[in-house]
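Table S2 (continued). Query chain:
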Amino acid sequence: MRLILAHGAGTGISSPFLEAMADLLVERGIALTLFEFAYMASRRDGGAKRPPPRAEALVGEYRAMIAAASAKHPHQTLVIGGKSLGGRVASLLADELYAQSEIAGLVCLGYPFHAPGTPDKLRVEHLKDLHCPTLIVQGERDPFGSRAEIENIELSHHIAFAWMNDGDHDFGPRGRSGFTRKGNLTAAADAVAAFIAGLSAAR
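Corresponding output:
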């Protein structure tokens, strides 16, 4: 299987978080493709630093990336996902592509359930009836959706969670918690690897 990961809203595929996760996932034998949206690539080339487009406006780019990856790796089953915004965009496509047998699953690293400070404005309607096997790896105190908040929301039973101990949006814990960022990143990579292994076994 091959995992496609897109980046978060404010940082590209060279962010410290994605670079660390990519290294850990490759160490676990996962074939990986990192994908950057055009607005972020433009920033890298010196373009204006505008706010990212709405997630819905990025779906076409992600769809094109999936088609390209499928053509380049025709014998590999695809799993899609991303960090924060990237995972949300992938989630908007997941059920359609899963029903067409184009992907086997979805992985979201720090899903943005809501913007910080606005827990009443949830982005979960499409997650309530999701049929695509999904793993959401989430920090327990993520300001975009903490464990206490999310466990009170009714979501599809096809969604599994891996909670990172005392983790923030990048899975970093507080110093006094007794946990470490390195430990949480390792646990996150282990959870993703186990999820993908389960998808492979089920095929």
